[in-house]
Amino acid sequence: MGFSPLFQNTRELWNEWEMRLLVLLSLFLQLTLATQVRRRKFIFRYWIHVMVWTTYLSADSIATLMLGILSSRLANIQEPKGTTNPKSQITAFWAPFLLLHLGGADTITAFVQEDNDLWLRQLARLCIQAGLACFIYFVALSGSLLSMLAVATILVGLMKYAEKILCLFLASKGHLQDSMLVLPNFAPMYPKIMEQYNLREEEGYRVEIVEFTEVLPLDASPVDSGQAFGKEEVKNLSKAYKLFKIFKPLFLGFIHKFGDLDVSRHMFMDEGMESSDAFQIVEIELGFMYDLLYTKAPLLNCAWGVIRWVVSLSVLCAVLVFFYLQDKKDYAKVDICTTFVLISVAILLEIYSLHLAIESNWVVHWRLQRIGRSAISSTLGFLQFCRNQRWSNSVPQFSFFELSVRKINNIFPKCSWLAKLDEKLVIFYISYKEFNENIKEWIFRDIRDTVKTLERNDKLNNRVASLKLEASEVLKKLNRDDLNWSVEAMEFDKSVLIWHIATELCYYRDRKKMLDRSREDLNTYRMSKLVSRYMLYLILLHPSMLPTGTGMLQYKDILVDAQMFFQGKLALLSKNRDSVLLNVIKRVKKLFKKEKQFLHTGVQSCKKGHKSRESRDVCELCHLLLQGETDLWEENLGSTKSGSVLFDACHLASQLNNGDLGDLSMKWDLIGKVWAKLLIYAACQCKGYEHCDSLSRGGGELLSHIWLLMAHLGVAEVVQTFKPHRAYTLIKN
């Protein structure tokens, strides 16, 4: 009974502050969405992904909950005399601002692509929530001093909410497909042409029929674009916008014109095209696609956007002024402050949204289309003082050995019912590497070499099928047919896993030797590791972007095979307890038994000091596998392919280390070329829908950038072209 007064006081306190706290929480979520959501476009971090996802889901829920609470309390709003309680009036005045919040931030309309297809559900919610807001207005505000201000704010809220639904509809798969349908390629009207030809001949003219192909020019005419953009970037932006209009149907698997493809291929194959410019053009194109799918940018970067900002800013500023001038003596001070905060932050969010729009590529391109310098264009150029970031320029990395050591030593696998949770937490083991100019040059050079090889061998008509054989061709050219078993007649993801583990083993083996090598050799060495770890990341977290296979299941099998191998090796050498190798095996066996203590074994696979326990453990794991060679399983299995991914990878590493490749340069050149071919093949196999989905993760995967580059060069799974569109005209001689 002693707790009853305390419980009653707590309940009364909550009833008094509930709506104030909820409306401020809704406002805070809108601020977070407006300022943080755009970071997911150019920052590839999963904690940002989780934060945006939580905020995106919570924002609508809190605003809807607040409207429901307001409407449920309407029974207590009317006083006995028929007048309205002033406290209830100002609380009901918050309902229009909740409608503004439901309209969402301009920087996000959908979290994932599937949200766009749910635009009808959002339309139904609009009807219900707009009805609730109007119901609250008529019951609590009708005839009060706040009524006109509430009406104006409700109209702005409805306008923003309708914008959100319209953007969802425009980005839905059905509407995009309808809008991107290619018009039929009608054949020339030969009878009409011949009729005109005969008439001109009868009139005494000497005429001939000339055939020509229509193509779209991509040359840019650069203008001053403001303080944040250089001339080269402006040229690239102009080219990217035109290419975006041409290749946008590819994201839905549609076709485009042969002439357009011929122009883009010539542009990217030109020796004057730098790798940095090529990747920047692709970044801008993917940025346009991101805005189309996930933001209000396509709707706001047109005449409607100007109307929207003029109306919303004018109305909200007028509401702020009139509320300031209104007599507020009947309202509580905390409610007055809350209302001022709601109005002021709404204005600031509109200004911030306008600022982001001015800095966007859409506005820069609009200025490029304006001939001459106008006052509006000059003002916009002056306001573009910040560079618009388009991509994270980072590549996610996973290492099999590092991931295994970390997973072995955590607490989750000890509890079977937490094993699934542990699989989800694998995202926190991701590391990131910068996608610098050296990597861009390395990949772009190999892309162009691949296209030249296909053109030289006349294989462009069967592009993707030919790409699958490119890795084998690399091995044949370097006289390493003995390695073909690792890429030919094998599932793609299994081949990736084998080459990943082999690359990791070679990387740790050659780490000290590569310190004295040339810069080119060092770049190939590092880039091979980067692509290898990126491909493992795709297998574990985004297998749908790769050719169909069982990569995740095979990865789990590797862990089992490793544990069985270490246990078998320990039993085989049990008589030699003082053996140095045995100490390493015992050490590794402890790792797979998830020991908490990590003791020194007395064996050093390298003399380098390790910064972390995991780094030391990985080094010792690689040392053990390299020491084992492959004689043991070749004798037992009688074949180079054991059926075990781990043993096959160790056998491949042994072949690479002990083969006739000569020095390290040839060895890592081979490894690098194989990884480049595997990466290009994976990019071309991925469907456009998957690339659209990846845009919400740091502006797109590296795989998406390579896919679009290959599409520009005519090498992609979805690139099917019409025959050249020919036109005919009569020329008088």
Main attributes of the structure:
mainly alpha; globular
Topology at a glance:
Layout: H1 3-36, H2 46-72, H3 86-92, H4 95-102, H5 113-116, H6 119-141, H7 147-171, H8 173-179, H9 190-202, E1 207-213, H10 231-247, H11 258-269, H12 275-294, H13 297-300, H14 303-325, H15 333-359, H16 361-369, H17 375-383, E2 394-397, H18 400-408, H19 419-424, E3 431-434, H20 437-456, H21 463-468, H22 470-477, H23 492-509, H24 519-541, H25 551-572, H26 580-592, H27 613-628, H28 631-637, H29 645-658, H30 664-685, H31 688-694, H32 702-712, E4 726-732
Antiparallel strand pairs: 1-4, 2-3
Overview of the structural elements:
This protein is mostly helical and 733 residues long. Among the domains are: 3-179 and 302-354, no CATH class; 395-435 and 469-697, no CATH class. The longest helix has 34 residues, at 3-36. The model is unreliable at 220-227, 573-578, 594-600, 630-640 and 718-728 (pLDDT under 50). The chain contains 32 helices and 4 strands. The strands form 2 sheets. It has a two-stranded antiparallel sheet.
Strand residue content: under 5%
Main beta sheet strand tally, sense and closure: 2 strands, antiparallel
Question: Average pLDDT value?
Answer: 78
The share of residues in helices is 55-70%
Query: Which geometry do the CA atoms define?
Result: globular
Q: Structural class given helices, strands, pairing?
A: mainly alpha
Question: Nutshell version of this structure?
Answer:
This protein has helices at 3-36, 46-72, 86-92, 95-102, 113-116, 119-141, 147-171, 173-179, 190-202, 231-247, 258-269, 275-294, 297-300, 303-325, 333-359, 361-369, 375-383, 400-408, 419-424, 437-456, 463-468, 470-477, 492-509, 519-541, 551-572, 580-592, 613-628, 631-637, 645-658, 664-685, 688-694, 702-712; strands at residues 207-213, 394-397, 431-434, 726-732. It has 733 residues and is mainly α. Helix 1 (3-36) runs parallel beside helix 15 (333-359).
